[in-house]
Amino acid sequence: MKVKGLWPAWLVVVVMVTFSSFSAAQTQGEESEDTQWFTVDVLNAGLGEVPEEVDRVTPRESVRSFVALTEQEEYAAAAHLLNLSDLSSDEQVERGSQLAMQLAEVFKRGEWLNVSNLPGRQDAAIEDTTGQNPLAGMPRRDIEITSLQADGEAYDIRLGRYQVEGEDPVWLIMPESVSAIPVLYEEYGPSMLEKYIPSRFKSSFGVLMVWEWIAIPVFLLFIGLVGWGVYAFVGLTAKLLPSGAQSIFAARIKVPMALIVISLITQMMLDYVVSFSAVATTTFRVLLIALLAWGAGTIALRLVDTIMLRLTRRLVGEIDDTKPRDQRRLLTSLYALRRIIILITVIAVSVYVLGQIQLFETLGLSILASASVLAVLVGIAGQAMLGNILSSFQLSFAKPIRIGDLVMFEGQWCYVEGIFYTFIRLRVWDERRLIVPVTYFVSKPFENLSVKSTKMYRSLELTLHLSADISLLREKFLAFAEEEESVIEHHKLLCSVTGQNGTAQIITCYLMTSDPLAGWAAEMSVREKMLGFIRDNHPEWWPRDVMVISHQDIALGARQGKQSPGGGGASH
């Protein structure tokens, strides 16, 4: 009896656990459904019945319906796509159409709105076939259409999903976004100029309105004339400034200064004079940001170049290997610093432009998805350029050559004038310039004649008769060499017989010069003086051939002379 009495208690426990689990599952299901929308008691009671042309089932259809209705100027019907719950019933009737009209103008001018990018599902769930998005398949009850700036503040235009008990859920502009419409309209609404444009020119023609097709070319012509005026003014200023770094800097910033002024004036006109549709405004905005960033970056680089030019003229002067190594090393470091500044400037400008046009938000997933393809394309297309850039940094830091060094490259004497990102500029001894790709230069053997010292031994050879007096020639060589300014270390002057044959001797003279190019000139001068001394004083020292004539050769010559027409032989 005791055991039998326990069965009802266990049965009660099982039933209670089962019932509680079922209740919890049912409650969780109800909560899951509630998270798919906002439950409200009433929606826009003051607007009356919803017209049949209003479609609010999905986010895409809601916005598409709003745009279509406002283009037909049916603002009263478009007001049904706004959640006006923050307004009373009377205010909904009075202000609903006005708010719809204002939001339509904001959409036209604020930012290019691509309706096709909005979700087409009723639950606005993210569809991701790649399986990389962890939120894929989860329903959403509010989404962002766009985000706009006004008075330095960001305002989001969002759609929310609402359900009145017993009715299907619908997508409407959320009350928080509706309250921001007047502020956004003040920022993006029609300009003063548009109030005087006839209505017939405000109709759409393609992606723009009719009046915009006329106004945009005039607008571009006007800002182009402004840019030309700035360019001419800066050029005139450069001519009026005294010659020097200031005039050089002013002359080199004409184009970037013109672009900066164009960008600022265009932005000012778009803010206060005229406003175009979102397509044109977005295009202008991207171009203006790029022009402003490029102009500012170019002016910064021109300033660095001007400072480098001034330092070069003050510290180094003419670039050659006669200058101290410290000065040439400084100039090489300045060129390396210039390339680093260029690299930093390009990266900063690129990040600024991408950040301003919000490419990271709109194209981030696409960029990440195609990163491998872009890497391959950039690697193939820019292989030579990247190799030159890396090689230029290698030369700048390792310093096998410095600015001003004298190098023997492919059989030519050249001074290193500049080491740039992709090429090296060499000044040949005859004032020609060689532009050599960096990778080509480092892949070829070259002789740096200035790596330790610019001093160089030069030698000249004279081939003279065996009777030439070497002692006298040595004295003359020493005298002539000491007269040359570029000949140094006179104790190392040397003149000796270095070769001999049966008829002549080879005399070689050695001299030390301050630098290779001056040594070449000194060698030519000393040779000329030595040859002049021999020609004027000892012409018998010139080498001459010795011919030995035998008796048979003499007899043969005599017989040939008799037989010749003029030698007294037989008559013709």
From TrEMBL:
Residues 386-450 form the Mechanosensitive ion channel MscS domain. It comes from marine sediment metagenome. This is Mechanosensitive ion channel MscS domain-containing protein. The chain crosses the membrane at residues 210-234, 255-274, 286-304, 335-355, 367-390. GO terms for biological process: transmembrane transport. Keywords: Membrane, Transmembrane, Transmembrane helix. PANTHER family: INNER MEMBRANE PROTEIN, YNAI-RELATED MECHANOSENSITIVE ION CHANNEL. One of its GO terms (cellular component) is membrane.
